[in-house]
Amino acid sequence: MDPLSDMLIHIKNAGEAGKHTVVVSHSNFKFKVAEVLLREGYIAGLARKGRGIKKLIEITLAYNGKRPRIQGIKKLSKPSRRIYQGIRGIRLVRQGFGNVILSTPKGIVTGREARKAKVGGEVLFTIW
Fold it and tell me: Which of 7, 12, 37, 84 is the most exposed place for a label (fewest CB within 10 A)?
């Protein structure tokens, strides 16, 4: 029932299946998260499709050779249990080979950007 989890698992499973694109339903929150993934290189492209209530997000997946760029995703904050971290609680993921994505007052950002801006927020998920 969590739309963000649904989108993330769609992306991960499409990569494991060798697909080039995946289409998910549109929301501004999911689009902002996808923009962060694009900026960090986890996906190769992003486009809005459709109009009105039939809006969709088309995500082009990124690969390293034949392996998908996204190896794993762990959802931390859930609708039933929100997890918040201050600036001191934001740690490295997989010794710096992964990222933590947060929802902060400055928008959806990575852990590195949150530490640089000196803001904490809701820890959405980790990705590697």
Answer: 84
